[in-house]
Amino acid sequence: EPEVTQTPSHQVTQMGQEVILRCVPISNHLYFYWYRQILGQKVEFLVSFYNNEISEKSEIFDDQFSVERPDGSNFTLKIRSTKLEDSAMYFCASTDYRETNYGYTFGSGTRLTVV
Amino acid sequence: GIQVEQSPPDLILQEGANSTLRCNFSDSVNNLQWFHQNPWGQLINLFYIPSGTKQNGRLSATTVATERYSLLYISSSQTTDSGVYFCAVVPQGGSEKLVFGKGTKLTVNP
After folding, report:
1. pLDDT attached to residue B89
2. Contact residues, chain A, for B48 at CB < 8 Å
3. Closest Cα partner for B70 from B12, B37, B29, B16?
4. With an 8 Å Cβ cutoff, is A35 touching chain B?
5. What single-letter DSSP state applies at residue A72?
6. Is the dihedral of CA B33, B92, B104, A34 positive or negative?
7. pLDDT 10s digits, A82-105
8. A19 close to A13: Cβ distance less than 8 angstroms
9. Residue B8 has what pLDDT?
10. Residue-by-residue DSSP string for A78-114
């Protein structure tokens, strides 16, 4: 089964620093997403991306967040100035609505720790 | 927005026991998936099941969309089944985001 790949698996950063989380979605998928999960809590939607632009975003996705698809394979989430409360597991996901057998495929996540 | 309620919140079993996890949702959905989050935090896709019944080994799932619930059955549980099980839905009406429930934390003891 095809996979969504995320790097790095763990990242520790100092408060105020910029971080970039990277994802390689499944190659024939057209819709890309970022979700996050604060430790012990449920998974929350951040942003969806289709046709090179944001199609939907949550109230969590404020001006310090941005997403980009810099080439034909990578999909990135940038946090400009990290805060302690940004510590969480960040998941990338992708889907192609034509593939109705699998739904959304999630990557293994990046555990971000802000100190 | 749509509410996704999972029960029970916690479940402790002995190895070999069977269990049923429930997911209720408050509105019509286009998509429903069950995920297993393992101890390393990975989200493993178990079933894409907006309606009907599917089986995969010891696991099976049933969604009754008209009554707005889904069930996940685990038979002959093993210690490796431990973790958190999440139900997630995409509500009808244009949004494409998955809305997750709070999960059921399953512990299977040897």
Report:
1. 95
2. 100-103
3. B29
4. yes
5. S
6. positive
7. 999 999 999 999 998 655 566 899
8. yes
9. 98
10. EESS--GGG-EEEEEEEE-TT-TTT--EE---EEEEE
CB contact under 8 A, B42 and A109: yes
Residue A100, min C-alpha distance to chain B (Å): 8
Q: Does A48 touch chain B (CB under 8 A)?
A: yes
SS3 B80: helix
Q: Take residue B70 and report the two structure tokens written for it.
A: 């889904």
Closest CA to B61 of A26, A91, B50: B50
CA distance B90 to B32: 7
Across the interface, whether the CB atoms of A35 and B41 are under 8 A apart is answered no
Angle value at C-alpha B99, between B95 and B103, nearest 5 degrees: 170
Alpha carbon A108 to its chain centroid, in Å, reads 11
The answer to whether the Cβ–Cβ distance between B35 and A56 falls below 8 Å is no
Cβ within 8 Å of residue B40, ≥6 positions away:
A108
- Which of B45, B86, B95 is nearest residue A102 as measured by Cβ atoms? B45
